[in-house]
């Protein structure tokens, strides 16, 4: 009895659809044991990166187990979906879910200091430990957005809940809602909750758009305050460092009494993140 249970559990783990077929067709324990060598061979092939599905085929002689190759397109869709399932805010481009540290980032050897910090974040997240995030800044086109996507894609593949938002687009979205245009207020609320609750969140291109006082006090500050209180890992990407971001924010302030709230915002940014610069050539010109 113990052997058949092991076989069934292995099939269920490796080929859940095949397991469902076996149950639906009421295959006996003896029949499952007879099929086990073929199934285990297919599992071995699967371990060699042979992409396939397995199913039972019935004919006049009875039934058999066959492996069907999966198309490259189907494999790609599956890889995308596995990562996408853990994004609390969907990305605009599905192919961004495929950006990964192994294939896309290893070529950037001048960014090894950032990658070492990424590895620390991944290890801490793996162990469910709190870890301070990063303020990644540098010139245009140096790969800041791509690197941050690679990081959270890795964490999403580890079943961590992640969120990525482009700040200028979020500011525009909020301005549209506040001005009374037809954009769902529920959509903004869901975005805010997602950014508050994600295990790791990326605020991309912060400082590139002018923040209104309303946006700062009613959207960004509450999100960062929640993340700070809950010790959530937070990544910012920007073309400027935190001091320059603070200076720009103070220069944009419309009233002197804004300074208290601005100081609160900068304090939370500094608490949540460690500055790290990305140097190198503009990859967009290649």
Fold topology:
Elements: H1 2-14, H2 16-24, H3 29-46, E1 52-59, E2 62-69, H4 72-84, H5 101-105, H6 112-126, E3 133-138, H7 144-157, E4 162-166, H8 167-178, H9 185-197, E5 200-204, H10 213-229, E6 233-238, H11 242-252, H12 258-272, E7 273-278
Helix pairs in contact: 1-2, 1-3, 9-10, 10-12, 11-12
Descriptive labels:
286 residues; five-stranded parallel beta sheet; alpha/beta; two-stranded antiparallel ribbon; Rossmann fold; single chain
What would you say this structure looks like, in words?
- Helix content is 54%, strand content 15%.
- It is α/β, with parallel strands linked by helices and 286 residues long.
- It folds into 2 domains: 2-69, no CATH class; 76-285, P-loop containing nucleotide triphosphate hydrolases (Rossmann fold).
- The mean pLDDT is 83.
Mass-distribution shape:
elongated
Q: What do we call the CATH homologous superfamily of the largest domain?
A: P-loop containing nucleotide triphosphate hydrolases
Report how far apart the termini are. 62 Å
Q: Sheet with the most strands?
A: 5 strands, parallel
Topology-level CATH name of the largest domain: Rossmann fold
Put simply, the count of helices is 12
The CATH architecture term of the largest domain is: 3-Layer(aba) Sandwich
Binned strand content:
15-25%
Helix content: 40-55%
Number of domains: 2
**Mean pLDDT over the full residue set:** 83
**CATH C-level label of the largest domain:** Alpha Beta
Tally the beta strands: 7
